[in-house]
Amino acid sequence: MSTNRNPHDDVVTSYKDAPTRTVDADGVTFAYRELGPKGGVPVIFFVHLAATLDNWDPRIIDPIAAAHHVITFDNRGVGSSSGSVPDSVEAMADDAVTFIKALGFTKVDIFSFSLGGMIAQALVDKHPGLVRKLVLTGTGPKGGKDIDKVAGTTYWDILRATLTRSDPKEFLFFNRNASGKPAARAFVKRLEERTVDRDAPMKLRGFRTQLEAIKKWGRSAPDDLSKITQPTLIANGDNDRMVPSILSEDLHRRIKDSELIIYPDSGHGGIFQFHQKFAPVAVEFLGR
């Protein structure tokens, strides 16, 4: 891993080829990857529960990176980043701010999924001036109904996946039906397109700590989302078993002038199942 950023690097346009770099800040070595043209407001990607740099769908990243400076990162204690995972979403947001500022950015767009969307909301609440635009997918608000049940759903689907020798994401992110099953297999296959410089796996202790943080988020008093004035795009499938789809509608209702897309016959990973439709929408939203 290199610890420096060279502004004259050739522009990488494919996520599978983006080198892993590190930056040190506040006692943490953060691992990250960047691609796309430099300059302008960068798009920082906030990843989901138990996920590392290797869990981003290249069919979402690559179209956005065609026109935007894209950065994915492992937050504290995740993947190849050092330290231990904090036990609250708010502390995870503080770490994300530390990472963003370490790279020298004063204004960013955030693309988030699931737990990443919770971290993004906590960050915007505390540091509104840092964020220009917000993409919230497969996520829900603080105090959202049934968010505290994520752990139970997750452990159940991990068991189901183990029994069928599948990837848990096939159960957690997709419907187990004629359209969901092939979409799930295709998604998991896309995550394997990168063959070199793979990230370190999520540690079990960090995964459990993330689950506790999500439970705490679900049981906390709601934030005032009317304070979010950034242009916001919200998306999900219509049958999200992890973070109920109705919570995406709740976010949309509470965030003024936000846009909402609900994809039919799809689950938590609706944006991945419908990547051909969603990626152009995200590109257009970020490019306005």
From TrEMBL:
- Protein's UniProt keywords contain Acetylation: no
Q: Where is the AB hydrolase-1 domain?
A: 43-272
SUPFAM superfamilies from the entry?
A: alpha/beta-Hydrolases
Please provide, alphabetically and separated by semicolons, the GO molecular function terms listed in this UniProt record: hydrolase activity
Is Hydrolase among this UniProt entry's keywords? yes
What domain of life does the UniProt record list for this protein's source?
Bacteria
Q: Which UniProt keywords apply?
A: Hydrolase
InterPro entries per the record? AB_hydrolase, AB_hydrolase_1, AB_hydrolase_fold
Q: Name one Pfam family in it.
A: Abhydrolase_1
Name of the featured protein: Alpha/beta hydrolase
Q: Organism, per UniProt?
A: Kribbella ginsengisoli
